[in-house]
Structure formats: structure tokens, C-alpha cells
Amino acid sequence: MSSGGANSSNGSPRLAGPTTTRRRVADMMDAERSSNFSDVSDEEDNSNGNNGDHHHHYHHPVIRYWLLRSRMFFFALETWLLKIGDTYSWFVTAVQSMRSGRHMGRRIFGGLLLLVFSSVFVKFSLMSGHVDLNGRREHGLFIVQTIKEDWAFAQKIVSEREASDAVKPLPVLEKFPIPEIWMKPNCDNYQKCISRPRNRIRTGTKTNGYLLVHANGGLNQMRTGICDMVAVAKIMNATLVLPSLDHESFWTDPSDFKDIFDWKHFIEVLNDDIEIVTSLPPQYAAIKPLHKAPVSWSKASYYRGEMIPLLKRHKVIKFTHTDSRLANNGLASSIQRLRCRANYEALRYTKEIEELGKILLNRLKKNNERYIALHLRYEKDMLAFTGCSHNLTAEEAEELRIMRYSVKHWKEKEIDSKEKRLQGGCPMSPREAALFLKAMGYPSTTTIYIVAGEIYGRNSMAAFRSEFPNVFTHTTLATEEELEPFKQYQNRLAALDYILALESDVFVYTYDGNMAKAVQGHRRFEGFRKTINPDRQNFVKLIDLLDEGAIPWEMFSEEVKNLHANRVGAPYLRQSGESPRLEENFFANPFPGCVCNLSQERTSSLKSYQMSRRRVVLSR
């Protein structure tokens, strides 16, 4: 309700009392406004207009109701005074006529009769009302309803008005243009396409055997590996046993599949694709499975030609590795779509993880604020693996070298840190990441969520916080009580980070790790949400020039923006390479395979139609 004067009401009073009459405020006010009280309203408006304010009064419904009631009272009083005056005039005329002596008896009798009826009417009409004010009873003139009844009726008006307002649609807020730094790339002609072909729905065909899989690596490496094993089970016509997870990786997380993923949902979503069981049937539980490590980036022909015969012979096979065991390209479209159904629909985190993820997301987006999820892979294991020690002390660099030599399966041991950085092979340091975001145009007030474990180095984050103080992690965003069930389980904490990275307004990754691949691919699948992939090789050259004083900040910022104008997650076809190891990962960019270009599909459909019509014409 708008307020235009000093007497306007600012809120709706809460009044008590029963209500028995249903009336609409608008109907009541319109009817009374069009009645004979208009002259009173005009007089009051004119009187109010002379006080120098020169503005209209828009009263609360309760106030307007009482104003109208007061007007009714004074109008009725005026009407009765006029009637009493007419009666008095008639009485004077009658007395004068009695002096003439004609029909004196009849006139006296008529006058007395009139007085009797008047007395009775006044008794019951003008003197019957009572007012209950603060516990006192007073007699008054022309009280149509008691105060309690009037307040009850006023409450009824307010209640109906509030109920009416409650069902009205909320006003459409004015849409302000989204700043360019938050805008996602244009993807109007693209959409998800992972529907299951009718001829690929699982039938009652007898299984060739049971497939046990051990997912290796961190959470996101295991996640994509599990999706590949779902596709492999389809290719081999095998029954998949719920995968076991890696407990011996760097994080040594003891969590099992059921601790991280909603296993019932997983089985249900994929029920028409493959058979999934929680454990081996009793008749096969005692069989020692055949252990195999599938060849990396294999095509369907490998599993059909080499693995199916082994499965039929041994009935139970255990794949000891799942990472990158299926080719990125060259697979049937039904298999590619199955990989995406497994990843983006079937693999859902447990209820506890999902609910805490939503709580943290709401805190980041408080007051509809936007935030950046920064995958700052400046962690001890990654730095030791890559041999990168830029911005670290000599003692910290030596600690990383010792760790690298202690891990046997890391092949590369002697690494030139400076050369590796200039080649773009190192994760961005926190200082480099802060300067990158600043150069891209993000203000210092931007909310940043760090998607990573513990950042390595004693003072590594100081330079970042000096540029962007609003920095959060799952540790600082959640309460101790909320994090207690997750503290000892790094993969569950990684699942929280995954949720917040997926739902962020902008995702920036500073190194091409497994999480960066998984999240950017999921964001492409969900509508090409803005994802910035820094050109590390060229960026470090620019930042070195800035540090040397060779270029000013303005030129540095302009060059960084120009360098990344086409690296914000826009649609493009997945790039193939000379070898599977060098080509773009399927889960980093599921287009083509799980995302379709509508304009190309329309063109293809039109060409197919034209070709079919041409064949019909030629056949005639």
C-alpha cells in the first residue's frame, strides 16, 4: 500500500474478534464512494487540501472504514433533525388550526398518537446502542454496531485484503543487464541429447558374466572411470557389480561407493541399460575372479574381441583400473550417450552430501550475489608431481622433491621448475591467480570459493587475499558441526567442492586435472555455463613482463582479456589428436556425443528429406 501523507498507515494492524460477514474491500468502498456521502467526502478533501500539504491521503482499509462510519453517523443525525423540524412545523400548523375550532378533537387525538409513535421509535432506534470502550459502557446516538463488531468487521477486511495480496503474482523486478564478466557464452542452438534409443533398451538376454571393477585415483578420476565401466558392461553384455573405490591413493579415504553416491538411484536410472547388483550371487562368490587391467583408451572392438571370450570362460572378471580405459572418440552414439547418462543422471551424491552442498551454496549466493569457483590446484601432491616450486621457499621445494622420489609410480623425477612453468606445465600460484582475475575485470569485492584441498606454502594465500579478501573454502563456509561427519573423508569433501564448482556463476581452473575436466564437461552439458580456461603459457610471459616493469598494468590487463576472449566455455566440437593421450577428454567436452547442435540437426534432417524425395522421384 502506498503512503502519500502524514496520516497514512504503514502496516496492517492485527485485530482480534470473530467475523461472520464476507465482504470485498473494493466492493464496499466503491459502493460507499458512489452513495450520498460524496458531498461529505468532498468537503473533507477540500478541508484537508487547505492545510498546505497539497497531496492526497491514501488510508489503510481500517482507517477508511472508520471515516465512512463517522460520515454515516453525522448524515443520519442531520436527516433526523430535519424530520424533527418538519414534525415541529406540522405541530405548529396543527395548533394554529385548532384555534379555528374546526375538527379540534380529531387533531388533538392525532397529535397525541404521533407523540406516542415518535417516543417508541426514538426509544428503540436512537437509544438502543452501547459502546464498549476500555471496559466502560456509555449510551450514544445511532450506533448501528458495537465497537467489538466494527473491529471484527475491520479485521475481516484486513484479512481478506492480505489474503488477496498473497495470491497476487509478485511484481516483476526490473532486469538489469548482466555485466560481461558474468555472462555465459551464447549457446542458443545447443541442447542435451542423451535419450536412450528404443532398440538399445535392455532385454532379458542372459548375461555373459559378472564384472567387478576397482575404481582408482581421486574422486573425479573414479567418477569418470565408473561411467566408462558402465559403457563397457553394456558392450560386453555383463552384469556390473557396484564398483569398489580406491582406499590407497594419496588421500587414503576409506569411503565406499554407498558412502559417496546414492547407489539405489544409480541402479534405478541405469536399469534399462545394464544389470547392476550390489554383490556377486552366492554361486559365484566363491569363484576367484580373473584380474585384468584393460588397455587405456580402448575401443569397443577390444572389449568385444578380447574381453568377452574371457568373461564367458571365467564368469567373473575384475578390472583393477578404470581410469581412461575407453576411447574418447570412435564409439557408437548410443555408447557415448550412455556414458553421459551414467555421469550426469545416475551418479548422484548421497542425501547428506547433497543437502550440505545446498546449504553452502545458499550461503555463497546470499542476497543473490554471484561467485567464482576457483580450482586452485596449488596442493602438495600436484606440485610434487609436476615439479613446480615457483613462489615457494627452498625448504618447501626440497620437501616436494623428496615426496616426488618417494612415489614409485610417478615416472618423471628430475624436473626443471622454471622451464616447466614457462611451458605452461605448472598450476598457477595463488598470486598469479589473483592477478589473472583482477586483469579479467573482477572487482576486489568478488566472492571467491576455493575448490581445492589445503593450499601448499606458508604464505601462499597472503598475496591472493590482499587482492580478493572475500575468500571461502568448505572449511570456512560450513560450521564445525556440519563438517564433523566429513572431516576424515577427503572424497566426501571433494564431492562438496564438486557441487559448488558446478553451480558457480563462473568456474576458473588453473590446471588441467581430473576435477577440472569433470566439472567443465558437466558445465558444458548443463548449458555451457561460463568456464574460464587460462592460457598458462602465454599468461606467465605477460606476468613476468609486468613484474619486470616492461609493461604497465593497463596494457597487461588488456592483453589478458584479449588472450582469453575465446576461452570462456563456448560450444566447440571436441578436438581429436594424433593419439588418445593428446586429444581432448570426452568428459571434459561431451560435444559431440551428448550435446546436439539444433541448427545442424535441422539442416541434416532437411538434407535427408530432400534425398529421400529425390529417390522417390527417380524411382518413378
Short structural summary:
The protein has 620 residues and is of the alpha/beta class. The protein has 24 helices and 15 strands.
Describe the structure.
By secondary structure, the protein is of the alpha/beta class. The protein is built from 24 helices and 15 strands. The strands form four sheets. Strands 4, 5, 6, 7, 8 and 9 form a six-stranded parallel sheet that branches. Strands 12-11-10-13-14 form a five-stranded parallel sheet. Strands 1-2 form a two-stranded antiparallel ribbon. α8 packs antiparallel against α11 (333-346), α13 packs across α14 and α22 packs antiparallel against α23 (553-563). It starts with 24 loop residues before the first helix and ends with a helix. Mean pLDDT is 80; it is low at 1-59 and 124-151.
Write the layout of secondary structure elements.
Blueprint: H1 25-33, H2 38-49, H3 61-99, H4 104-126, E1 130-133, E2 136-139, H5 147-167, E3 190-192, E4 210-215, H6 219-236, E5 239-241, E6 244-245, H7 257-260, H8 263-269, E7 276-277, H9 282-285, E8 290-292, H10 300-314, E9 316-319, H11 333-346, H12 351-364, E10 371-375, H13 380-386, H14 394-406, H15 417-422, H16 430-439, E11 447-450, H17 462-467, E12 471-472, H18 474-477, H19 480-483, H20 490-502, E13 506-509, H21 514-525, E14 531-532, H22 536-548, H23 553-563, E15 595-597, H24 598-619
Parallel strand pairs: 4-5, 4-6, 4-9, 5-7, 8-9, 10-11, 10-13, 11-12, 13-14
Antiparallel strand pairs: 1-2, 3-15
